[in-house]
Amino acid sequence: MINLENVSKTFNTGKPNQVNAVEGVSLQINSGEFVVIVGANGSGKTTLLNLVAGNTLSQGGKILIENTDVTRLPEYDRTKWIARIFQNPLLGTASELSIIDNFRLAALRTRRKGLSIGKNDAFKEQVRQKVASLRMGLENKLEQPIGTLSGGQRQALTLLMSVMDECKILLLDEPTAALDPKSAVNVMAIADNLIKENNLTAVLITHNLRDAINYGTRVIQMSEGKVIRDIAGEEKAKINQNELFSWFD
Ligand SMILES: Nc1ncnc2c1ncn2[C@@H]1O[C@H](COP(=O)(O)OP(=O)(O)OP(=O)(O)O)[C@@H](O)[C@H]1O
Q1: pLDDT digits over 82-116, tens only?
Q2: Beta-carbon count within 10 A of 84 CB
Q3: β-strand partners of 204
Q4: How many CB atoms lie within 10 A of CB 41?
Q5: Of the four, 100, 157, 173, 185, which is 20 to 30 A from 210 by CA?
Q6: Residue 35 near residue 216 (C-beta atoms within 8 A)
Q7: Which residues, 6+ apart, have CB-to-CB distance to 171 below 8 Å?
Q8: Domain residues of the chain, as ranges?
Q9: Cα(22) to centroid(ligand 1), Å
Q10: Strand ranges (DSSP E) for 125-233?
Q11: How far apart are CA 83 and CA 234, in angstroms?
């Protein structure tokens, strides 16, 4: 669960270029909810995600993650709950290391769900099965440097590595923006499956209105640092692309 109470972030305070990126936002995201955030460029979406992740600290207000007050906690102290996927597929993996070594590295960083850390065959077999579930044929390339894979393949592996963590919350900041259309569709479908299978609480920022319609249980629109629309459940399921497009008028 994520609980934001009156969180704010202003850049360049007191200067002519002051920006109120996030302004007094209060939001409760329940366990298992999948929230899609839409909004114009500069409306504060990424800053809001940074506040949740601890990459930026809130100026006032309060942030609870899984009922723990994390308002002053830095990003690294929130990683036990939170995994984050960025637009750039190069972030999150070490290019020169093989797929299997990237999984080892990830396993060393935190305790992974159902994974015993080590170089042994059992570890490799566990990774092989997980990677095979992506249906990209990558289970036969476990010794290949991850830097030789496509952006879509890397993004799928990064997702898999993050959900094999004990994390409860997955933050996705335009995870498919750098991918070709087909890879983007694949990666979103993989993300959705992983979220459901692992019963994660998820927040997706996207400019892709089709994804905003197809995915998630709730959609939020931000404008000028504030949440101006918040629609969930059956009402969310009824929204069509034209209606969503009209929100940007
Ligand atoms: N580090 C920073 N220093 C100064 N201003 C910033 C900083 N980060 C964000 N901003 C400003 O805060 C506002 C909100 O930015 P943010 O990146 O959160 O918007 P966004 O909705 O994610 O935009 P986009 O859709 O373009 O990614 C913008 O006006 C941006 O220029």
Answers
A1: 999 999 888 888 999 999 999 888 877 665 545 55
A2: 24
A3: 36, 172
A4: 6
A5: 157
A6: yes
A7: 49, 52, 53, 82, 83, 84, 85, 202, 203
A8: 2-92+159-246
A9: 9
A10: 169-173, 201-205, 218-223, 226-232
A11: 28
Ligand 1 centroid to Cα of residue 102, in Å, is 31
Is the predicted ipTM greater than 0.85, yes or no?
A: yes
Instruction: Confirm or reject: Cβ of 47 under 6 Å from ligand 1.
Output: yes
How far apart CA 111 and CA 233 sit, in angstroms, is 34
Question: In angstroms, rounded to a whole number, what is the distance separating the alpha carbons of residues 190 and 239?
Answer: 23
Centroid of ligand 1 to alpha carbon of 159 (angstroms): 24
Global pTM reads: 0.93
Please tell me the distance from the alpha carbon of residue 4 to that of residue 7, in angstroms, as a whole number: 6
Work out which ligand 1 atom sits closest to the CA atom of 12.
Answer: 4
**For 6-28, how does the pLDDT look when each residue is reduced to its tens digit (9 = 90+)?**
999 999 999 999 999 999 999 99
Residues 9 and 158: their CA atoms lie apart, in Å, by: 29
Alpha carbon distance 222, 224 (integer Å): 7
21 touches ligand 1 (CB under 6 Å): yes
Hey, what amino acid is at 244? Answer: L
Q: What's the topology of domain 2-92+159-246?
A: Rossmann fold (3.40.50)
